[in-house]
Amino acid sequence: MSEDELATINKRIERGELYFQSGVPVCFPLQKAYISMHRVYVYADIDGILLMSKETAIVERNRIENPLIRVSETEVNEFYQQLGLSRDGVLLPPKAELPNELMLDEDQLRSLFSMLNKEGHCLVTSGTAQVDELHNLVFGTNYQTHIHIDHDINRLKMVNGKLGAHTYYVFCDAEIMPFHSHCVDGYFSFNPIMMASKEVQKELYFSLKDALKPATVGICLICDEDRDYLQAFYKSDVLSGRLKPWKRCTLPAFHFQKTEYRTQNHMGAISNKRSFGSQFLKA
Length: 283
Hints:
Blueprint: H1 3-14, E1 18-20, E2 33-35, E3 42-46, E4 49-51, E5 58-60, H2 73-83, E6 102-103, H3 106-115, E7 119-126, H4 131-138, E8 142-150, H5 153-159, E9 167-171, E10 184-189, H6 198-211, E11 212-223, H7 229-243, E12 253-261, H8 273-282
């Protein structure tokens, strides 16, 4: 949004006319924001993190979930606390406890990284607080833009501002990829997406399939004990293409890597000799 547009938005916020989707009032002026193409939703960029989930969409009163219900002061405070945001628009420090992450050794990661396309317009990574993992992934690639997304605001805060100059940080929903069709050239998810329900996994799969360009690679980590619906949807599409070639469309090549959770005492398998070398060479 332009400075003039932001000024108009901030005047409306001051008058108490704008809300988050859930009905929580926006209590702070925006320094930077994006607006949807149809100019209905506004998304705040706070300290480099774009708040682009359903619940953080800023709308007029008539577009909130239930305009007839007044949100209590307790609910307002809970919303800001869960978002890790003060009511004056400042990101609070990340919580000490982060969600367990999946664990891969160096050889597994090197093998997975090698599957990604080495160049393109947009690389999307997802769901980790391990900066070294991300540095090692992007090292040796030539993407114009790197977008790191997460549905956990605390993980996102841990990596915010620590990656390359062409990296954007986006807080979004777990099941929706906030991208245009066929605009992503590579995707790597460190997040244990298989913990989600079948319905969420289905929504995520179709969202991923739509966002990735045909013949590109998407890599997802899963757990042995999880119900791998996402992988089942992909296998069904591949089989359908073989049995019905007249309906065949070019799919992204998804790869699903089984792994296990890190223990609480695990310090990160990626803090190895390559890490500093990769970062210094990249700089």
